[in-house]
Amino acid sequence: MNDSASWGAATRALRTGHQRTEQREHAEPIFTTSSYVFDSAAHAAECFANETGEHNIYSRFTNPTVSIFEQRLAALEGAERGVATSSGMAAILSVCLAFLEQGDEVVCSRSVFGSTVGLFSRLMSRYGITTHFVELNQISAWEAACNARTKLFFAETPSNPLCELVDLSALSQLARSRGVKLVVDNCFCTPALQQPLALGADIVVHSATKYLDGQGRMVGGAVVGSQEDMAAVFGVVRTAGPCMSPFNAWVFLKGLETLALRMKAHSENALNLALWLEQQPGVARVHYAGLPSHPQHALAQQQMRAFGGVLSFEMAGGREAAWRVIDATQMLSITANLGDAKTTITHPATTTHARVAPEARLAAGITDGLVRIAVGLEDLADLKADLSRGWIA
């Protein structure tokens, strides 16, 4: 038997979790079944009585293909267990439902995805859960917002879309000292570039839709962490049903096989494009942790292997200038998704963060002149040429 515990990350991304069936298949099979047959009534009773999810009962919460994806992602993140969900937002919601109840409080970074802001500020508040939004990189602000009712810290680092960071080791120490669970959205980096659990986080969430897929094909999410914490999350998915389909899980497995290679290439392209953007007329500022000009560049070097594929830049001319750059492109895809092999470009204030209150957007640094680019795998010269149209026009 192979000793998977000693495998390197590249090997784990290719082979973890797959136990070949009697068909001796080389690629992971897709189990397109809603339910499973038992040997006897006693066998069925035994499986249904087990709450851990180790027996295949019903594909809402147990499916062999989904299980392979969960095991493989957990192995890459250094987690004991993973739970797959129907989307990244379903992953965050499942964590909330697993660990929060009426009267509890959350401290969340101000710099998070717009739908995450909405989930905490609008939906959770309807059920008696209070969220305090703080500056991501100010540990003192997290500490000041924490009290006896605080149950979760939620951070996205690097942040969307300004690429801000938090010192995960320092934040995790604060969380532990207060008995609070630290949840980290690792969507921008993936385990190929950053492992929050190794830096002290309790739980990591993913939108698998992004880099874990890598080609913009499927929507999915995942949560990874300890056996105990994931048992609670699994209980939510089992009961409420925000589950991942077997086919989507199979596609994400294929994405994991090339994740490390793609993240390296995304990072190289993004860094070179960020350096180029700093020299372009009308660009007031470029936000990318890989730039020496980034105020947290040293921290990024400490807790990230590379700097990822997402950057943003501010046009001095406000929304008119930002829209001119976006509309002048002919090759880049104008879409709010990210993590695709194809480069995407969007205007956060009117797309990803459009439903965030204007004052909250400004507090998070999302100006009307901000443009976000998720840098893909095209030739760098072609990316520069397409973006240049906005300055030539």
From TrEMBL:
InterPro entries: Cys/Met-Metab_PyrdxlP-dep_enz, Cys_met_metab_PP, O-succ-hSer_sulfhydrylase, PyrdxlP-dep_Trfase, PyrdxlP-dep_Trfase_major, PyrdxlP-dep_Trfase_small. It catalyses: O-succinyl-L-homoserine + hydrogen sulfide = L-homocysteine + succinate. This is O-succinylhomoserine sulfhydrylase. Pathway: Amino-acid biosynthesis; L-methionine biosynthesis via de novo pathway; L-homocysteine from O-succinyl-L-homoserine: step 1/1. PROSITE patterns: CYS_MET_METAB_PP (PS00868). The lineage of its organism: Bacteria, Pseudomonadati, Pseudomonadota, Gammaproteobacteria, Oceanospirillales. It comes from the Bacteria. The gene is metZ. It comes from Marinospirillum alkalitolerans. CDD domains: CGS_like. Its EC number is 2.5.1.-. Residues 1-26 are annotated as: Disordered. Its cofactor is pyridoxal 5'-phosphate. Homotetramer. Keywords: Amino-acid biosynthesis, Lyase, Methionine biosynthesis, Pyridoxal phosphate, Transferase.
